[in-house]
Amino acid sequence: MSTALLIISLIISIEIVVILCTKVKCNPAIALILGSLLRVFLTEVPLIDITADDGTVTSGLINVIDSGFGSIGLPIGMVIILGQLVSDTGGANVIADKLVSIFQSKYAMYTVTFAGVVLSIPVFLM
Questions:
Q1: Contact at 8 Å (CB) between 68 and 76?
Q2: Is the dihedral of CA 116, 117, 118, 123 positive or negative?
Q3: pTM of the shown model
Q4: Domain-by-domain residue ranges, the chain?
Q5: How many C-beta atoms lie closer than 10 Å to residue 99's C-beta?
Q6: Could you count the other beta carbons within 10 Å of the beta carbon of residue 17?
Q7: Residues ≥6 apart with Cβ < 8 Å to 49
Q8: Per-residue pLDDT of the chain (126 residues; tens, 9 = 90+)
Q9: In the 8-state DSSP scheme, what is residue 90?
Q10: Do 81 and 29 touch, CB atoms closer than 8 A?
Q11: Rounded CA gap, 40 and 111, in Å?
């Protein structure tokens, strides 16, 4: 595939992500996943591994998703969506305000740090 087609597919994918985020009001993590899948489709990435006559192996989409996205990408994406949900519903403010009201004002810095630890627990549970 030529360089020009790769650049055009990149621009189209970026435009789709921006449109999904701004016009459709889609979650940015989901928009990025959909934009990435569009880029894979436009650049004609093979679904399965392909071995050439000289022995070189081109990794297919299924192997790449299984090795990289499945092990770290999917949990991070889910935590992003969960964190956005907690933030949009006001849950993060409620947790931080409750912790600050429990402790004295001179320990506010430590309380906010503790609130950050509490709010980041879902990252480690995924």
A1: no
A2: positive
A3: 0.54
A4: 1-44, 60-126
A5: 19
A6: 21
A7: 57, 58, 59, 60, 63
A8: 688 888 999 999 999 999 999 999 988 878 888 998 898 888 877 766 667 777 776 667 666 665 666 667 677 777 777 777 877 888 878 877 887 788 877 887 888 788 778 777 766 665
A9: T
A10: yes
A11: 45
CA 78 → CA 33, 49, 70, 109, distances in Å? 12, 27, 12, 29
Provide the token pair at 26.
Answer: 């889609």
For residue 118 the two structure tokens come to 């509490």
Instruction: Look at residues 71, 1, 73, 3 and name the one whose alpha carbon lies nearest to residue 37.
Output: 73
Q: Find out whether 1 and 20 touch, Cβ atoms under 8 Å.
A: no
CA angle 54, 62, 38 (to 5 degrees): 105
Tokens of 85: 């949900």
